[in-house]
Amino acid sequence: MKKNIKFFLIFTFGIIAFLGTKDAVANNLSISNFSVYEMNTASNNITFTCDVNWDNSWRNTTNYDAIWIFLKYSTDAGVTWSHASMSANGVTPPGFNVPTNFEIIVPSDEKGFFLQRTDLSLGNVATQSVRFIWDYAQDGLSDAAAMAANTVNKIFGIEMVHVPQGAFYAGDDNSSSEYKFQQGSADNDPWYISSETSITTTNSAGDGFYYQNSGATGEDASGTVFLIPTSFPKGYQSFYQMKYELTEDQWVSFFNTLSPAAKANRDITSSTEGGKNSDGIVKRNTVSWDSSNMSSKATTLRSDRPVSFISWLDLLAYADWAGLRPMTELEFEKSVRGIDVFPVADEYAWGKASYNDALAGEIYPDSDEGGSEQVFDGASNLNRNSLGWSSGDGRVGGNAQGQAGPLRVGIFAESSTNRSTSGASYYGSMELSGNLHEMVVTIGRQGGRQFLGTHGDGELTTLSGYEGHATNIDWPGINTVDSARGVTGTIGSGYRGGDFQSSNIRHFQISTRTYAAKDSDSEGYSQRYDATLGIYQGGRLVRTSP
Q1: Pairing outcome for strands 374-375 and 363-364
Q2: Which residues pair with 192 in a beta bridge?
Q3: Phi, psi of 85 (to 5 degrees)
C-alpha cells in the first residue's frame, strides 16, 4: 500500500448503515445485532448492544476516522420518529462499553456518539457488543412508552474523519485564482488562520485579511471591512467531517422517517424548487417516491451514489435530523490542506495542481450498472463534464446521448492508489473536488457570519405549512419573519469544489470562490438544481469535536 506522509488512504466505498430490528449493511459499514441489553426503570434508561464493522479504519499521529452513531425511536409503531438522547456525555461514560483499543465519545448535547480507535493502527474493524444507553426520561417518555418504542427503534451510522485543531492557510498565492482569500488588494499571500478569535477584514494593500467579492447579488464588496466573530467556526478548532458526500441511501433513510407533510416539503423527485421532476433516473439520480401515497417509502437503486437535486433547505434538514451541522468555507479549506501546510498554487483536494479525468471508457461496467462501478485508470481522481455515459444509468429512455452525473462515493480509492490518485483530502475525505458542489456557509454575507456552529437536535419543524425544516436559529436561511418556520432561505450559503458538469477547471480548485456566496433570494425559495449557475450540489456535514 502506498502512503503519503501523515496520511493513511481509505479504501472504503460505503458511508451509512441503518436498521430496525434486523441487520443492515451498506457496503463496508454495517451495524448489526442491534438489541436491548438491559432496561432499568429505576434510572429510566435502556442499554442497547450492537456490533459495528467497517473496513480500512485508521488512527495515526495525524488524525483518525470514526463512526457517528445515533438512535431514532417511535411511540406510534413507526408513524412518527424522534431523536433519542444518550444518558451521559464524556469518554466512554459509565455503562457504555467498547472493545479494547476503542472508545465512545458522547458530546455534551448527548444526541449520539462517536465510535473510534484509541491505538495507532490501520485495518478493518469488527467491534462486538458495543453498548450505549438511552435516557428515555430525558426525552419525556414513560416506562411503557419506552418499552413500546423498542420494537421499532432505528440506529444510524455515518463514517467521519477527524480534522485536528491547528493553524492553516486559506487561499493560495497565485494571482490567477478566482476570488481567493488574500492578504491585500495587491498581496496574494493567503490568510493564516491561527485561532478561533475574531477576524476583522481590511481594505489594505497587504498584510491583512482582504475580502474579494465573487459577484453574487447582496455579497459584501471587495475590500469591505467586516467582523467574522469568534463564534463563527473558522476551522482552527478540531471537527469531524463526513468522509463522503451525502448518499442516496442516507437520503431515503432520512426521508422515510418523516411525516407525510414533511415528506411533501423534502420531496426531491417533485418539480418544485428545481427538483428532478421524475421517479426515473435523471443525471444518474435514482431516488424514487410515490407521492400519491404519502405513507409510502422512498427507494434508491444506487445506495452509494451521492444524492443530487438537494437544496440548502434539504441539506440542513438532514443535518438537524442527524445531529450534525453545515460546514463553513474556511473549514472546507482546512480539511483539504492540513495544519501549517502552505498551499500549492491552483491545487485540487489531493494537494496537487494536476488532475486526471475519469473517462466513460475507463468505467466498468458501463452498460448494466449495479451501483458498484469502478475506474480502471488508477490515476483518475476527478469526475467532471468530460464524463458522459451512453449506457447504464447514464442513459434515460433509450437516449443514446447519455447523461453525465455523480459517481459512486470513494470510487477513485483502490488498493493501489495514494492520496493523489484517489482524490483524497489531507485528512482522508473523498471527492472534495468534483462529483457534486459542496454547500457551505459563506463569510461573504452577514447571514453567513451570524452562524454560531450549533448542532442539530434531531427534531424538525412541525408548524403547519413548514413541516420538515431545520430549526437552528443561527443557521443561514432561518426565516426572518418567524424563526418557528425554520430554515426557509439560502442567504449566507454558497458552493465550493465544483461538480460533474462544471466546465471551468478552476471551479475544482480549493482556493476558488466563484460561487462561495449565493445570490439573494426570497423567503421560501431555494433551488435543488441551480439552473441560473448550472450547479448540481450535494451535501457534506460536520460536527465540532466534543
Answers
A1: antiparallel
A2: 169
A3: -100, 135
Domains held by the chain: number: 2
Q: Grid coordinates standing for 371?
A: 451501483
User: In this structure, is residue 156 part of a structural domain?
Assistant: yes
Q: Which of 45, 56, 6, 9 is nearest to 420 (CA)?
A: 9
Tell me the whole-structure pTM to 2 decimals.
0.94
Q: Other CB atoms closer than 10 Å to residue 499's CB: what's the count? A: 27
* Domain-ending residue, one of 129, 163, 197: 163
Residue 9 is assigned to a structural domain of this protein? no
CATH code, domain with 70: 2.60.40
Nearest alpha carbon to residue 468 among 283, 282, 294: 294
By 3-state DSSP, what share of the chain in percent is helix, strand and coil, each rounded to 5?
10, 25, 60
The answer to whether 70 and 458 have CB atoms below 8 angstroms apart is: yes
Q: Could you tell me if residue 452 is inside a domain?
A: yes
Residues spanned by the domain of 126: 16-163
Cell of 483: 424563526
End-to-end Cα separation, the chain, in angstroms = 32
Amino acid at 495: Y
Under DSSP, is residue 321 helix (H, G, I), strand (E, B) or coil?
Answer: helix
**Rounded CA separation 169/214 (Å):** 19
**What's the one-letter identity of residue 425?**
S
Specify if 202 maps to a domain.
Answer: no
**Tens-level pLDDT at each residue, the chain (546 residues):** 222 323 333 333 333 333 333 333 334 899 999 999 999 999 999 999 999 999 889 999 999 999 999 999 999 989 999 999 999 999 999 999 999 999 999 999 999 999 999 999 999 999 999 999 999 999 999 999 999 887 789 999 999 999 999 999 999 998 888 999 999 999 999 999 999 999 999 999 999 999 999 999 999 999 999 999 999 999 999 999 999 999 999 999 999 999 999 999 999 999 999 999 999 999 999 999 999 999 899 999 999 999 999 999 999 999 999 999 999 999 999 999 999 999 999 999 999 999 998 876 677 665 556 777 788 777 899 998 766 666 677 665 444 445 788 999 999 988 788 999 999 999 999 999 999 999 999 999 999 999 999 999 999 999 999 999 999 999 999 999 999 999 999 999 999 999 998 989 999 999 999 999 988 765 445 799 988 888 999 999 999 999
Helices (H) and strands (E) in the chain, counts: 7, 22
Considering the domain architecture, whether residues 318 and 442 belong to the same structural domain is answered as: yes
In 10 A of CB 505, how many CB atoms? Answer: 16
Which CA distances in Å does 524 have to 81, 194, 342, 478, 487?
Answer: 25, 37, 41, 10, 8
d(CA 196, CA 232): 8
